[in-house]
Amino acid sequence: MDKIKVRGGTRLSGKVKVSGAKNAVLPIIAAALLPESGVSVIHDVPALDDVHTISEVLRALNAQVTYADGKLTVDSTTVNHTETPYEWVRKMRASFLVMGPLLARKGNARISLPGGCAIGTRPIDQHLKGFEAMGATIEHGHGYIEASVNGRLRGCKIYLDIASVGATENIMMAATLADGTTIIENAAQEPEVVDLANYLNAMGAKVRGAGTGTIKIEGVEQLYGANHTVIPDRIEAGTFMVAAAITRGDVYIEGAISDHLRPVIAKLREMGVIVKEEENGVRVTATGKLKAVNVKTLPHPGFPTDMQSQFMALMLTAEGSSVISETVFENRFMHVDEFKRMGAHIKIEGRSAVIKGEARLTGAEVTSTDLRAGAALVLAGLIAEGQTEVGGLQHIDRGYVDFTEKLRGLGADISRLSEEEEARKAAEEAALASGNVVKFRTSYA
Ligand SMILES: CC(=O)N[C@H]1[C@@H](OP(=O)(O)OP(=O)(O)OC[C@H]2O[C@@H](n3ccc(=O)[nH]c3=O)[C@H](O)[C@@H]2O)O[C@H](CO)[C@@H](O)[C@@H]1O
Ligand SMILES: C=C(OP(=O)(O)O)C(=O)O
To answer: What residues sit in the active site (predicted)?
Structure first.
Protein backbone atom coordinates (compact mmCIF):
# COMPACT_ATOMS: atom_id res chain seq x y z
CA MET A 1 0.00 0.00 0.00
CA ASP A 2 1.12 3.56 -0.73
CA LYS A 3 2.17 5.92 2.03
CA ILE A 4 2.40 9.67 2.30
CA LYS A 5 5.60 10.85 3.92
CA VAL A 6 5.63 14.36 5.26
CA ARG A 7 8.31 16.26 7.18
CA GLY A 8 7.03 19.05 9.34
CA GLY A 9 8.31 22.59 9.62
CA THR A 10 7.55 24.35 6.35
CA ARG A 11 5.38 27.46 6.22
CA LEU A 12 3.03 26.96 3.26
CA SER A 13 2.63 29.76 0.73
CA GLY A 14 1.37 30.29 -2.80
CA LYS A 15 -1.77 29.36 -4.67
CA VAL A 16 -3.79 26.15 -4.84
CA LYS A 17 -6.81 25.43 -7.01
CA VAL A 18 -9.86 23.64 -5.64
CA SER A 19 -11.32 20.73 -7.63
CA GLY A 20 -15.00 19.97 -8.27
CA ALA A 21 -16.95 18.84 -5.19
CA LYS A 22 -17.06 15.11 -4.49
CA ASN A 23 -20.32 15.39 -2.57
CA ALA A 24 -21.96 17.33 -5.39
CA VAL A 25 -20.74 15.24 -8.30
CA LEU A 26 -21.75 11.85 -6.85
CA PRO A 27 -25.51 12.58 -6.65
CA ILE A 28 -25.29 14.44 -9.95
CA ILE A 29 -23.87 11.38 -11.69
CA ALA A 30 -26.61 9.25 -10.07
CA ALA A 31 -29.18 11.76 -11.37
CA ALA A 32 -27.78 11.34 -14.87
CA LEU A 33 -29.69 8.02 -14.84
CA LEU A 34 -33.00 9.90 -15.00
CA PRO A 35 -33.26 11.13 -18.62
CA GLU A 36 -34.67 8.79 -21.23
CA SER A 37 -33.25 10.88 -24.01
CA GLY A 38 -30.21 13.06 -24.59
CA VAL A 39 -26.72 12.91 -23.19
CA SER A 40 -25.48 14.71 -20.06
CA VAL A 41 -22.09 16.41 -20.08
CA ILE A 42 -20.76 17.22 -16.63
CA HIS A 43 -17.79 19.57 -16.28
CA ASP A 44 -15.21 20.03 -13.50
CA VAL A 45 -15.58 16.41 -12.46
CA PRO A 46 -12.74 15.57 -10.05
CA ALA A 47 -10.56 12.54 -10.84
CA LEU A 48 -11.41 10.69 -7.62
CA ASP A 49 -11.82 7.01 -6.80
CA ASP A 50 -15.43 7.73 -5.78
CA VAL A 51 -16.16 9.16 -9.23
CA HIS A 52 -14.73 6.00 -10.77
CA THR A 53 -16.92 3.89 -8.46
CA ILE A 54 -20.19 5.69 -9.27
CA SER A 55 -19.29 5.57 -12.99
CA GLU A 56 -18.86 1.79 -12.69
CA VAL A 57 -22.25 1.56 -10.96
CA LEU A 58 -23.86 3.36 -13.91
CA ARG A 59 -22.02 1.15 -16.40
CA ALA A 60 -23.28 -1.95 -14.55
CA LEU A 61 -26.80 -0.59 -15.12
CA ASN A 62 -25.88 -0.35 -18.81
CA ALA A 63 -25.41 3.41 -19.11
CA GLN A 64 -22.59 4.67 -21.35
CA VAL A 65 -20.11 6.70 -19.33
CA THR A 66 -16.90 8.31 -20.56
CA TYR A 67 -14.44 10.53 -18.68
CA ALA A 68 -11.55 12.64 -19.86
CA ASP A 69 -9.96 15.87 -18.63
CA GLY A 70 -12.59 16.63 -16.03
CA LYS A 71 -15.49 16.08 -18.46
CA LEU A 72 -17.86 13.20 -17.82
CA THR A 73 -20.41 12.19 -20.41
CA VAL A 74 -23.38 10.01 -19.50
CA ASP A 75 -25.81 8.45 -21.95
CA SER A 76 -28.51 6.69 -19.94
CA THR A 77 -30.87 5.92 -22.79
CA THR A 78 -29.63 2.29 -22.78
CA VAL A 79 -30.15 1.62 -19.05
CA ASN A 80 -31.88 -1.75 -18.64
CA HIS A 81 -30.57 -3.11 -15.32
CA THR A 82 -31.81 -2.04 -11.91
CA GLU A 83 -29.52 -3.86 -9.49
CA THR A 84 -26.42 -2.50 -7.71
CA PRO A 85 -24.41 -5.21 -5.95
CA TYR A 86 -22.57 -5.08 -2.61
CA GLU A 87 -19.23 -4.80 -4.39
CA TRP A 88 -20.00 -1.13 -5.24
CA VAL A 89 -22.06 -0.06 -2.24
CA ARG A 90 -19.41 -1.48 0.10
CA LYS A 91 -16.78 0.70 -1.57
CA MET A 92 -18.87 3.84 -1.43
CA ARG A 93 -22.15 4.44 0.38
CA ALA A 94 -23.20 7.10 -2.12
CA SER A 95 -23.86 4.23 -4.57
CA PHE A 96 -27.21 3.99 -2.77
CA LEU A 97 -28.16 7.29 -4.44
CA VAL A 98 -29.08 5.43 -7.63
CA MET A 99 -32.18 4.07 -5.88
CA GLY A 100 -34.27 7.24 -6.33
CA PRO A 101 -33.50 7.68 -10.04
CA LEU A 102 -34.00 3.96 -10.84
CA LEU A 103 -37.27 3.76 -8.94
CA ALA A 104 -38.59 6.89 -10.64
CA ARG A 105 -37.56 5.87 -14.12
CA LYS A 106 -37.78 2.08 -14.11
CA GLY A 107 -40.28 1.42 -11.31
CA ASN A 108 -37.89 -0.79 -9.37
CA ALA A 109 -34.42 -0.95 -7.89
CA ARG A 110 -32.50 -3.61 -5.99
CA ILE A 111 -29.57 -2.13 -4.09
CA SER A 112 -27.28 -3.73 -1.55
CA LEU A 113 -27.83 -2.39 1.97
CA PRO A 114 -24.92 0.00 2.68
CA GLY A 115 -24.21 -1.10 6.27
CA GLY A 116 -22.20 0.98 8.73
CA CYS A 117 -18.80 2.56 8.27
CA ALA A 118 -15.89 3.91 10.30
CA ILE A 119 -17.73 7.10 11.27
CA GLY A 120 -21.11 5.70 12.32
CA THR A 121 -23.93 3.26 11.65
CA ARG A 122 -25.43 5.53 8.97
CA PRO A 123 -28.94 4.09 8.53
CA ILE A 124 -31.04 4.79 5.41
CA ASP A 125 -34.46 4.78 7.06
CA GLN A 126 -35.23 8.35 5.93
CA HIS A 127 -34.57 7.50 2.27
CA LEU A 128 -36.89 4.50 2.51
CA LYS A 129 -39.56 6.40 4.44
CA GLY A 130 -39.66 8.90 1.56
CA PHE A 131 -39.95 6.25 -1.15
CA GLU A 132 -42.70 4.46 0.77
CA ALA A 133 -44.64 7.68 1.20
CA MET A 134 -44.46 8.06 -2.58
CA GLY A 135 -46.12 4.68 -3.07
CA ALA A 136 -43.14 2.33 -3.31
CA THR A 137 -43.08 -1.09 -1.67
CA ILE A 138 -39.85 -1.81 0.17
CA GLU A 139 -38.56 -5.32 0.83
CA HIS A 140 -35.41 -6.37 2.66
CA GLY A 141 -33.65 -9.70 2.14
CA HIS A 142 -30.24 -11.30 1.60
CA GLY A 143 -28.48 -7.99 2.31
CA TYR A 144 -30.45 -6.14 -0.33
CA ILE A 145 -33.24 -3.59 -0.38
CA GLU A 146 -35.73 -3.92 -3.16
CA ALA A 147 -38.05 -1.04 -3.94
CA SER A 148 -40.80 -1.20 -6.52
CA VAL A 149 -43.84 0.77 -7.57
CA ASN A 150 -46.80 0.02 -9.78
CA GLY A 151 -46.82 2.74 -12.42
CA ARG A 152 -45.38 6.09 -11.33
CA LEU A 153 -44.37 7.28 -7.89
CA ARG A 154 -46.89 9.71 -6.37
CA GLY A 155 -46.02 13.17 -5.13
CA CYS A 156 -46.64 13.72 -1.40
CA LYS A 157 -45.46 15.62 1.67
CA ILE A 158 -42.45 14.11 3.47
CA TYR A 159 -41.07 15.38 6.77
CA LEU A 160 -37.52 14.13 7.37
CA ASP A 161 -36.79 13.27 11.02
CA ILE A 162 -33.17 14.23 10.34
CA ALA A 163 -32.07 16.77 7.73
CA SER A 164 -30.20 14.01 5.89
CA VAL A 165 -28.22 15.08 2.83
CA GLY A 166 -28.50 11.70 1.10
CA ALA A 167 -32.21 11.22 1.87
CA THR A 168 -33.02 14.74 0.61
CA GLU A 169 -31.11 14.05 -2.62
CA ASN A 170 -32.52 10.56 -3.19
CA ILE A 171 -36.13 11.69 -2.61
CA MET A 172 -35.63 14.85 -4.66
CA MET A 173 -34.37 12.81 -7.62
CA ALA A 174 -37.23 10.29 -7.31
CA ALA A 175 -39.80 13.10 -7.12
CA THR A 176 -38.73 14.71 -10.43
CA LEU A 177 -40.61 12.03 -12.40
CA ALA A 178 -43.44 11.43 -9.90
CA ASP A 179 -47.09 12.06 -10.54
CA GLY A 180 -47.90 15.35 -8.77
CA THR A 181 -45.98 17.53 -6.34
CA THR A 182 -43.63 16.38 -3.57
CA ILE A 183 -42.72 18.60 -0.65
CA ILE A 184 -39.69 17.69 1.47
CA GLU A 185 -39.78 19.34 4.89
CA ASN A 186 -36.73 19.55 7.16
CA ALA A 187 -34.68 19.06 4.00
CA ALA A 188 -30.89 19.27 4.05
CA GLN A 189 -29.67 22.73 2.98
CA GLU A 190 -26.11 21.88 1.90
CA PRO A 191 -24.70 23.62 -1.22
CA GLU A 192 -24.41 20.18 -2.83
CA VAL A 193 -28.20 19.76 -2.60
CA VAL A 194 -28.56 23.08 -4.46
CA ASP A 195 -26.07 21.98 -7.12
CA LEU A 196 -28.04 18.77 -7.67
CA ALA A 197 -31.30 20.75 -7.95
CA ASN A 198 -29.69 23.03 -10.55
CA TYR A 199 -28.65 20.03 -12.64
CA LEU A 200 -32.11 18.44 -12.30
CA ASN A 201 -33.72 21.70 -13.43
CA ALA A 202 -31.31 21.92 -16.38
CA MET A 203 -32.68 18.48 -17.40
CA GLY A 204 -36.26 19.81 -17.31
CA ALA A 205 -37.22 19.11 -13.69
CA LYS A 206 -39.22 21.56 -11.58
CA VAL A 207 -37.41 21.83 -8.25
CA ARG A 208 -37.86 24.93 -6.09
CA GLY A 209 -36.53 25.83 -2.65
CA ALA A 210 -33.29 23.81 -2.66
CA GLY A 211 -30.97 25.40 -0.10
CA THR A 212 -33.87 26.00 2.30
CA GLY A 213 -35.57 23.59 4.69
CA THR A 214 -38.52 23.08 2.35
CA ILE A 215 -38.08 21.77 -1.18
CA LYS A 216 -40.97 21.53 -3.61
CA ILE A 217 -40.71 19.23 -6.63
CA GLU A 218 -43.40 19.22 -9.30
CA GLY A 219 -43.15 15.93 -11.18
CA VAL A 220 -42.68 16.06 -14.96
CA GLU A 221 -43.22 13.39 -17.67
CA GLN A 222 -39.65 13.24 -18.90
CA LEU A 223 -36.14 14.57 -18.38
CA TYR A 224 -33.47 15.23 -21.01
CA GLY A 225 -29.68 14.99 -20.72
CA ALA A 226 -28.10 18.38 -19.95
CA ASN A 227 -24.79 20.21 -19.42
CA HIS A 228 -23.71 21.09 -15.92
CA THR A 229 -20.59 22.39 -14.16
CA VAL A 230 -19.97 21.06 -10.64
CA ILE A 231 -19.41 23.51 -7.75
CA PRO A 232 -15.93 23.71 -6.15
CA ASP A 233 -15.33 21.39 -3.21
CA ARG A 234 -15.86 23.37 -0.01
CA ILE A 235 -14.32 20.63 2.13
CA GLU A 236 -11.18 20.46 0.02
CA ALA A 237 -11.04 24.28 0.17
CA GLY A 238 -11.49 24.17 3.96
CA THR A 239 -8.74 21.57 4.26
CA PHE A 240 -6.27 23.87 2.46
CA MET A 241 -7.43 26.79 4.61
CA VAL A 242 -6.47 24.76 7.65
CA ALA A 243 -3.17 23.77 5.97
CA ALA A 244 -2.36 27.48 5.62
CA ALA A 245 -3.37 28.25 9.21
CA ILE A 246 -1.65 25.27 10.84
CA THR A 247 1.71 26.10 9.21
CA ARG A 248 1.18 29.83 9.92
CA GLY A 249 1.38 30.27 6.18
CA ASP A 250 -0.10 32.47 3.48
CA VAL A 251 -2.15 30.64 0.86
CA TYR A 252 -4.62 31.74 -1.81
CA ILE A 253 -7.27 29.07 -2.33
CA GLU A 254 -8.56 29.60 -5.84
CA GLY A 255 -12.17 28.66 -6.47
CA ALA A 256 -13.20 28.56 -2.79
CA ILE A 257 -16.71 30.02 -2.44
CA SER A 258 -16.88 32.00 0.83
CA ASP A 259 -20.63 31.62 1.12
CA HIS A 260 -20.23 27.83 1.27
CA LEU A 261 -17.60 28.17 3.99
CA ARG A 262 -19.23 30.57 6.48
CA PRO A 263 -18.80 28.45 9.63
CA VAL A 264 -15.24 27.48 8.71
CA ILE A 265 -14.27 31.11 8.02
CA ALA A 266 -15.96 32.27 11.23
CA LYS A 267 -14.09 29.75 13.38
CA LEU A 268 -10.75 30.47 11.70
CA ARG A 269 -11.25 34.20 12.36
CA GLU A 270 -12.23 33.48 15.96
CA MET A 271 -8.89 31.69 16.33
CA GLY A 272 -7.04 34.73 14.99
CA VAL A 273 -6.48 33.58 11.41
CA ILE A 274 -6.80 36.24 8.71
CA VAL A 275 -9.24 35.21 5.98
CA LYS A 276 -9.66 37.57 3.03
CA GLU A 277 -12.66 36.84 0.85
CA GLU A 278 -11.81 37.64 -2.75
CA GLU A 279 -13.84 37.40 -5.92
CA ASN A 280 -12.62 33.99 -7.02
CA GLY A 281 -11.23 32.52 -3.85
CA VAL A 282 -10.03 33.15 -0.31
CA ARG A 283 -6.65 34.06 1.06
CA VAL A 284 -5.67 32.63 4.42
CA THR A 285 -2.81 34.03 6.45
CA ALA A 286 -1.74 33.16 9.98
CA THR A 287 1.15 34.14 12.22
CA GLY A 288 2.06 33.56 15.84
CA LYS A 289 -0.30 32.23 18.45
CA LEU A 290 -3.89 31.18 17.71
CA LYS A 291 -6.72 31.14 20.24
CA ALA A 292 -8.56 28.00 21.34
CA VAL A 293 -12.19 27.74 20.17
CA ASN A 294 -15.17 25.46 20.62
CA VAL A 295 -16.83 23.83 17.62
CA LYS A 296 -20.10 21.92 17.33
CA THR A 297 -20.72 20.04 14.09
CA LEU A 298 -24.20 20.50 12.64
CA PRO A 299 -26.04 20.19 9.33
CA HIS A 300 -25.49 23.14 6.96
CA PRO A 301 -25.31 26.08 7.58
CA GLY A 302 -23.71 24.77 10.78
CA PHE A 303 -20.10 23.69 11.06
CA PRO A 304 -19.50 20.70 8.71
CA THR A 305 -18.62 17.36 10.25
CA ASP A 306 -16.37 16.80 7.22
CA MET A 307 -14.08 19.57 8.57
CA GLN A 308 -14.03 18.28 12.14
CA SER A 309 -10.82 16.24 12.10
CA GLN A 310 -8.87 18.91 10.17
CA PHE A 311 -9.92 21.51 12.78
CA MET A 312 -8.85 19.15 15.53
CA ALA A 313 -5.35 19.18 14.01
CA LEU A 314 -5.38 22.99 14.00
CA MET A 315 -6.64 23.17 17.59
CA LEU A 316 -3.57 21.21 18.66
CA THR A 317 -1.56 24.35 17.82
CA ALA A 318 -3.80 26.87 19.64
CA GLU A 319 -3.21 28.47 23.03
CA GLY A 320 -5.43 26.71 25.59
CA SER A 321 -7.93 23.87 25.28
CA SER A 322 -10.58 23.62 22.57
CA VAL A 323 -13.72 21.47 22.60
CA ILE A 324 -15.32 19.74 19.62
CA SER A 325 -18.85 18.36 19.90
CA GLU A 326 -19.66 15.94 17.10
CA THR A 327 -23.43 15.83 16.73
CA VAL A 328 -23.77 14.52 13.15
CA PHE A 329 -22.01 11.14 13.35
CA GLU A 330 -21.84 9.09 16.54
CA ASN A 331 -18.37 7.65 15.95
CA ARG A 332 -16.28 10.27 14.21
CA PHE A 333 -13.35 10.44 16.61
CA MET A 334 -11.29 7.50 15.32
CA HIS A 335 -8.47 9.90 14.36
CA VAL A 336 -7.96 10.86 18.02
CA ASP A 337 -5.88 7.76 18.77
CA GLU A 338 -3.74 8.45 15.69
CA PHE A 339 -3.14 12.07 16.81
CA LYS A 340 -2.15 10.66 20.20
CA ARG A 341 0.52 8.57 18.48
CA MET A 342 2.01 11.89 17.39
CA GLY A 343 2.01 13.24 20.96
CA ALA A 344 -1.40 14.97 21.13
CA HIS A 345 -3.36 15.21 24.37
CA ILE A 346 -7.04 14.75 23.57
CA LYS A 347 -9.73 13.51 25.90
CA ILE A 348 -13.02 12.10 24.63
CA GLU A 349 -16.07 12.65 26.81
CA GLY A 350 -19.13 11.13 25.19
CA ARG A 351 -19.64 12.94 21.87
CA SER A 352 -17.15 15.68 22.74
CA ALA A 353 -13.38 15.87 22.53
CA VAL A 354 -11.22 18.19 24.59
CA ILE A 355 -8.08 19.13 22.68
CA LYS A 356 -5.09 20.46 24.59
CA GLY A 357 -3.32 23.16 22.61
CA GLU A 358 0.37 23.99 22.11
CA ALA A 359 1.10 20.32 21.47
CA ARG A 360 4.63 19.30 20.59
CA LEU A 361 3.85 16.83 17.84
CA THR A 362 6.44 14.33 16.73
CA GLY A 363 6.39 12.45 13.42
CA ALA A 364 5.05 8.89 13.63
CA GLU A 365 3.53 6.12 11.53
CA VAL A 366 -0.22 6.66 11.49
CA THR A 367 -3.21 5.31 9.58
CA SER A 368 -6.20 7.08 8.03
CA THR A 369 -9.43 5.74 9.47
CA ASP A 370 -11.64 7.70 7.07
CA LEU A 371 -11.21 10.23 4.32
CA ARG A 372 -11.06 13.41 6.43
CA ALA A 373 -9.08 11.70 9.19
CA GLY A 374 -6.42 10.92 6.59
CA ALA A 375 -6.26 14.55 5.48
CA ALA A 376 -6.09 15.70 9.10
CA LEU A 377 -3.14 13.40 9.84
CA VAL A 378 -1.26 14.85 6.88
CA LEU A 379 -2.03 18.35 8.23
CA ALA A 380 -0.64 17.35 11.63
CA GLY A 381 2.43 15.94 9.85
CA LEU A 382 3.04 19.40 8.34
CA ILE A 383 3.92 20.73 11.79
CA ALA A 384 5.28 17.65 13.54
CA GLU A 385 8.96 17.36 14.30
CA GLY A 386 10.56 14.86 11.92
CA GLN A 387 8.78 12.52 9.53
CA THR A 388 5.17 11.35 9.62
CA GLU A 389 4.08 8.39 7.50
CA VAL A 390 0.38 8.26 6.73
CA GLY A 391 -1.09 4.97 5.54
CA GLY A 392 -4.62 3.96 4.56
CA LEU A 393 -4.48 6.24 1.53
CA GLN A 394 -7.46 4.54 -0.11
CA HIS A 395 -9.53 6.85 2.09
CA ILE A 396 -7.76 10.05 0.98
CA ASP A 397 -7.99 8.95 -2.67
CA ARG A 398 -11.78 8.81 -2.37
CA GLY A 399 -12.01 12.56 -1.88
CA TYR A 400 -8.85 14.56 -2.63
CA VAL A 401 -7.42 15.09 -6.12
CA ASP A 402 -3.59 15.19 -6.13
CA PHE A 403 -3.48 15.97 -2.41
CA THR A 404 0.27 15.37 -2.11
CA GLU A 405 1.11 17.31 -5.27
CA LYS A 406 -1.07 20.27 -4.28
CA LEU A 407 0.59 20.50 -0.85
CA ARG A 408 4.05 20.13 -2.41
CA GLY A 409 3.13 23.02 -4.74
CA LEU A 410 2.67 25.14 -1.62
CA GLY A 411 6.13 24.22 -0.35
CA ALA A 412 5.36 21.21 1.86
CA ASP A 413 8.09 18.59 2.22
CA ILE A 414 5.83 15.73 1.21
CA SER A 415 5.90 12.72 -1.10
CA ARG A 416 3.87 9.64 -1.85
CA LEU A 417 5.61 6.33 -2.28
CA SER A 418 4.40 2.87 -3.14
CA GLU A 419 5.77 -0.04 -1.08
CA GLU A 420 7.89 -1.09 -4.06
CA GLU A 421 9.33 2.40 -4.57
CA GLU A 422 10.03 2.67 -0.88
CA ALA A 423 11.94 -0.64 -0.79
CA ARG A 424 13.95 0.39 -3.86
CA LYS A 425 14.75 3.80 -2.40
CA ALA A 426 15.86 2.29 0.90
CA ALA A 427 18.11 -0.19 -0.88
CA GLU A 428 19.61 2.57 -3.04
CA GLU A 429 20.24 4.75 0.00
CA ALA A 430 21.86 1.83 1.84
CA ALA A 431 24.05 1.08 -1.19
CA LEU A 432 25.05 4.74 -1.49
CA ALA A 433 25.86 4.93 2.21
CA SER A 434 28.08 1.85 2.00
CA GLY A 435 29.83 3.21 -1.10
CA ASN A 436 28.69 0.11 -2.94
CA VAL A 437 26.68 1.83 -5.68
CA VAL A 438 24.66 -0.54 -7.83
CA LYS A 439 21.92 0.05 -10.34
CA PHE A 440 18.55 -1.30 -9.22
CA ARG A 441 16.11 -2.53 -11.80
CA THR A 442 12.41 -2.14 -11.09
CA SER A 443 11.41 -5.03 -13.36
CA TYR A 444 12.94 -7.93 -15.27
CA ALA A 445 11.94 -9.01 -18.74
C1 LIG B 1 -21.63 11.69 -0.46
C2 LIG B 1 -22.00 12.70 0.55
O3 LIG B 1 -22.61 13.69 0.22
N4 LIG B 1 -21.59 12.50 1.79
C5 LIG B 1 -21.88 13.47 2.82
C6 LIG B 1 -23.29 13.28 3.30
O7 LIG B 1 -23.40 11.94 3.76
P8 LIG B 1 -24.84 11.32 4.05
O9 LIG B 1 -25.79 11.80 3.03
O10 LIG B 1 -24.66 9.87 4.22
O11 LIG B 1 -25.16 11.99 5.45
P12 LIG B 1 -26.57 12.27 6.09
O13 LIG B 1 -26.82 13.73 6.07
O14 LIG B 1 -27.58 11.39 5.46
O15 LIG B 1 -26.33 11.80 7.58
C16 LIG B 1 -26.43 12.66 8.69
C17 LIG B 1 -26.87 11.87 9.90
O18 LIG B 1 -28.17 11.36 9.68
C19 LIG B 1 -28.22 9.98 9.93
N20 LIG B 1 -29.21 9.37 9.01
C21 LIG B 1 -29.11 9.60 7.69
C22 LIG B 1 -30.02 9.06 6.80
C23 LIG B 1 -31.06 8.26 7.31
O24 LIG B 1 -31.90 7.74 6.58
N25 LIG B 1 -31.13 8.07 8.65
C26 LIG B 1 -30.23 8.60 9.54
O27 LIG B 1 -30.32 8.39 10.73
C28 LIG B 1 -26.79 9.49 9.68
O29 LIG B 1 -26.52 8.28 10.30
C30 LIG B 1 -25.98 10.66 10.22
O31 LIG B 1 -25.84 10.51 11.60
O32 LIG B 1 -23.55 14.20 4.35
C33 LIG B 1 -22.72 14.04 5.50
C34 LIG B 1 -23.18 15.02 6.57
O35 LIG B 1 -22.94 16.30 6.16
C36 LIG B 1 -21.25 14.22 5.11
O37 LIG B 1 -20.45 13.92 6.20
C38 LIG B 1 -20.89 13.33 3.95
O39 LIG B 1 -19.61 13.68 3.47
C1 LIG C 1 -17.99 11.12 5.05
C2 LIG C 1 -17.66 11.52 3.83
O3 LIG C 1 -18.07 10.97 2.68
P4 LIG C 1 -19.06 9.73 2.43
O5 LIG C 1 -20.43 10.16 2.80
O6 LIG C 1 -18.96 9.54 0.95
O7 LIG C 1 -18.55 8.58 3.23
C8 LIG C 1 -16.77 12.69 3.60
O9 LIG C 1 -16.71 13.17 2.47
O10 LIG C 1 -16.10 13.13 4.55
So the answer is: 117
